[in-house]
Amino acid sequence: MRKLLLLLFMAIGVVAFAQNQIKVESGNFDFLKDQNEVNVQLVFDNAVYQEKNMTETQYLENRKADITAKKSEAVWKNWIYQWGQFKNSEYLDYFLKGINGKSKKVVFKKDTNTKYTLIIDAKWIYAGWYGGMIGSQEAKLTADMKFVETDDPSKVVMRLQADKIGGKQMNKQFAWEYGRIAAAYEVTGKKLGKEIKEVIK
Q1: What gap in Å lies between CA 139 and CA 183, rounded to an integer?
Q2: Pick from 98, 96, 105: which is nearest to 39 by CA?
Q3: How far does Cα 183 stand from its chain's mean position?
Q4: At what angle are helices 177-199 and 91-100 packed, to 10 degrees?
Q5: pTM
Q6: Count of beta carbons in the 10 Å neighbourhood of residue 91
């Protein structure tokens, strides 16, 4: 029985390790060796949310019903405003904070004219939960990532996948979904920056 339990825990550990990492699907980082800056763009067109793989519209409808019932309409209005702010700018800012803290040779920026652009296409977002003193569960992000030529995005030089990256880093908005998702973007940046740093020295 002990051996069976040990094998079970080992199997769970292997699955957990297989997740929460970035996998290279094609190409390598050599094209970055003569680059100083890279543009970054986030995409949410194909993202689904939570275990039920809801669309963003479905997810927001559920959150509106929950927040207005448990709190108030005013809380919901602030929540949906913050959701838009984070989706439009904060997630990218957190990603840039994460990757630029690791990748020193190449600086990643937004809205900049560079030879290459990194496109982060979110596929699955788990928002986690916050329980105060009871504890919390981090958000997770699965995304397809590709480096493309900025002038011709059809020319892909490298493909990677972020697989269920957990947002363990705390921030002042961590009690809300958008804060936890931002943390997942920051950790994704850190992991990618670490990968790049090992190659681009």
Answers
A1: 8
A2: 96
A3: 8
A4: 30
A5: 0.90
A6: 25
